[in-house]
Amino acid sequence: MRKKHPPEPVRPIQGPVFTIEGQTTVPSTSGRNAAAIIIPVVLIALIVALSVIFLTGVVKLGKPSVGSIALASRVNSSNKPADSRARFTSDDGAIYCCANVRAFGSTRLEARWYQAGTQVADFKRTFGAMAGTPPARFLTARGNVAFKLERPEEGWAGGPYSVKVLVDGKSAGERAFMVSEARTAGIAGVRYNDPAGGFSITVPEGWVAAEKSTLSGGLAGFMAPAGQSPYPPRFAVSLTDFTSVDPSYLNGIMKQAGAKDEQLFGPYAIMDLAGARRTFDWDFTSGAQQFRLRTTQVVVQVGDKVYSIDCHSLVTEIPANEPTFNVVINSFRQVT
Fold first, then answer.
1. Which of 57, 214, 267, 305 has the lowest CB atom count within 10 Å?
2. What is the CATH number of the domain that holds 208?
3. Do 176 and 225 fall into the same domain?
4. 298 and 215 in one domain?
5. How far, in Å, are 130, 141, 178, 277 from residue 100 at the CA level?
6. Minimal CA–CA distance to 238: which of 154, 328, 159, 310?
7. pLDDT in tens for each of the 336 residues of the chain?
């Protein structure tokens, strides 16, 4: 009978055996377990630390800078110039310095205005407030800003001006411009008073009243006498359905009607009357003739009424007619 041997005891599974100086050892697993815990903890701590540093603005990526700088008498809803130029007249209600800026939300922007070398105005604000962009703490963002110099109560003084743009106190660009008397300042004319008693406006001498049937419901309209121009300049005053002259309200309506950015309203004022102004080109057909016209539209608030002053001219004749339009527009007064 064969002798049975007892079964060998089951040995625990273990890693490779190493012999060191004649001794047999088994590597410990406690070191690997500790590393598996420490490494993720360190990574998490590093991520949290970097997030705190960036979000608090301790470390910033990028450098504030100013791109293009332009001057204009009006801006659109995106703070872009609606009529870039370097020469203005005493009729202009405001002068804007428009700039394309890359900066942080807290970057300090400044515009210093000078007349014949003497500082006459200063404007300071943060980039985030001016551009209306979310405040970027550690990454620069790009946006358009517009600094506004309003016409003084006593009117503009003619002569050379300049504006200097600063970023965090450092000069980032400068532009020079001229202000001169309007070519038609003091034009001869007569005062038209609305029969309903709502307003009065200056009509240039020699201009004739338009036929009511051509005014599309307007209160009054006048045009230059027919001459060599196939389309004499003209203007009309009408009541609108607008309930406000706030540009954001007006431009919301304009955009729904399909208006482009360059056709939108910018803030404007006639003396103490709040208003808005825009300019746009369009095609007008009369019989077999088609004309390319430019319209300057100014709306002003008079109590609970909003009046519109619409001036029309051939695009090619705008340089000659715009000064007259400006005088007419700025002569609008409320009659009580």
1. 214
2. 3.40.1000.10
3. no
4. yes
5. 11, 11, 22, 23
6. 310
7. 555 555 555 454 444 444 444 554 555 555 555 556 666 665 665 665 555 544 544 445 668 889 889 999 888 888 998 888 888 877 677 899 999 999 988 899 999 999 988 999 999 999 989 987 665 566 788 899 999 998 886 678 888 999 999 999 999 999 999 887 655 455 667 889 988 878 999 999 899 998 877 788 889 999 998 877 889 999 999 999 999 999 999 999 999 999 998 899 988 888 778 899 999 999 988 878 888 999 999 999 998 999 999 999 999 999 889 889 988 998 899 886
In this structure, the answer to whether residues 208 and 175 fall within a common structural domain is no
Report yes or no on 22 lying in a domain.
no
DSSP string, 214-274: GSTT-SEEEEPPP-SSSS--EEEEEE-S-S---HHHHHHHHHHTT--GGGS-EEEEETTEE
Q: Residue 176 corresponds to which tokens in the numbers above?
A: 């020079």
The residue range of the domain holding 313 is: 189-334
Task: Identify whether residues 195 and 285 lie together within a single domain.
Answer: yes
- CATH number for 109: 2.60.40.2550
**Are residues 318 and 211 part of one domain?**
yes
